[in-house]
Amino acid sequence: MPNRKRTNAYARLDESLLRDLPPFSLLDDVQIREILDLARSRRYDAGATIFEEGDEAERFYLLLDGYMRVVRITPEGEHVIALHIPAGQLFGIAKALGRDTYPATSVTAADSVALSWPMRHWDDFVAKYEGFAAQTYKTVGNRVGEMNNRIVEMATRQVEQRIACAMLRLINQTGRKVENGIEIDFPITRQDLSEMTGSTLHTVSRLLSGWEKQGIVESGRKRITVCQPHQLVILSGAQV
Fold first, then answer.
1. H helix or E strand, kind and range, residue 159
2. CB–CB of 163/207 below 8 Å?
3. Fewer CB within 10 Å: N-end or C-end of the chain?
């Protein structure tokens, strides 16, 4: 069974939780109230599986707090981290892809809170609420674009460049400014980086150790801080 917790803390959700989020930003408070009254809220521990690849897509979700990993399983059983989803975004939106099963596994990267709705409400939301469909399909387009970029990286770049690209994406999406640089704002391990980049744990460890000696990054206790982002851009092979 997935590792998840019920909570009563969000029994009466406030409209302000959705007011500024893109799928709902064009709605008035009455419409938002209608949506929230149909929602279920759960807290999830870090590392919890919300749904698995191939499961029947019974619900769709909005991440209120935390971070989500989208994981694919290869035919050989290897885990590949396809995407990271930050708070404020929908996920599990199989209906938007024309599917009735989830195309990937969803795992929390940190303690998280998510709203969810039965998938039967999807068509009603698309038809009734202005901007919901447009913003949702924009999100799908952005994710497809990111996946295409990842495919190009895997085909054309060396492993050091791929790892640098992955870390740059993470600090751009989730980075938090700290005294010595930009910290990836959720726990991440070297194994996670290897699963993101199609490389081995040994290679990731060797490269990160070298970058630490050069002062480019700092790491410890599942936290990584990029101290010299410009050097990481150079290592990625991007045009500067």
1. helix 159-174
2. yes
3. N
Tokens of 53: 């690849």
Classified as helix, coil or strand, 127 is helix
pTM greater than 0.70 (yes/no): yes
Q: How far apart are CA 25 and CA 132, in angstroms?
A: 9
Query: How does residue 188 score in pLDDT terms, banded at 50, 70 and 90?
Result: very high
| Residue 114, both tokens | 């998510």
Tell me which amino acid residue 162 is.
R
Q: What is the pLDDT of residues 57-91, one digit of tens each?
A: 999 999 999 999 999 988 888 888 988 999 999 99
pLDDT digits (tens, 9 = 90+) for 153-180: 888 889 999 999 999 999 998 899 999 9
Q: How many CA atoms lie within 13 A of 130 on its CB side?
A: 5
Backbone phi, psi, residue 70, to 5°: -100, 115
* Residue whose token pair is 């199989």: 94
Domains and CATH numbers, the chain: 5-154 (2.60.120.10), 159-236 (1.10.10.10)
On whether the CB atoms of residues 95 and 140 are closer than 8 A, the answer is no
How far is residue 73's CA from residue 89's CA, in Å, rounded to a whole number? 23
Dihedral sign of CA atoms 2, 67, 37, 139 in order: negative
